[in-house]
Specification:
It is built from three helices and no strands. The chain has 107 residues and is mainly alpha-helical.
Length: 107
């Protein structure tokens, strides 16, 4: 427990198993557009698209893991995970089609 005299909270430990699981799920999801690009011209991702999508998926997975490990009550955990999911969906749709017209929005 942190104290006013400078005590430290225990660090949130991310296990190697959790990190590997999140990385593998991210890689499997990214295989979908990679395989689709081999069969159709409708899917046309660049390296930058894969990097951004991978970062977004990996970051979301890490935030989910952190929420599950650190938030004690189920109600708070569900609210936090819901907020993370909504944030992910907002960024994803903004990058894909530009719902609010930001400079990095898709077409």
């Amino acid at each position: 427990m942190a104290t006013m005299t400078g005590g430290k909270l225990p660090a949130a430990k991310l296990s190697g198993k959790s990190l590997l699981r999140i990385a593998l799920v991210t890689a499997v999801i990214l295989l979908v557009p990679l395989v689709a690009m081999q069969f159709t011209r409708e899917v046309n991702w660049t390296l930058g698209d894969f990097v951004v999508a991978g970062g977004l998926l990996m970051g979301t997975g890490l935030l989910f893991d952190l929420a599950v490990r650190k938030i004690r009550t189920q109600k708070a955990r569900l609210i936090t995970i819901g907020a993370i999911a909504l944030g992910f969906l907002f960024v994803w749709t903004e990058l894909a089609v530009g719902i609010v017209g930001s400079p990095f929005a898709g077409s």
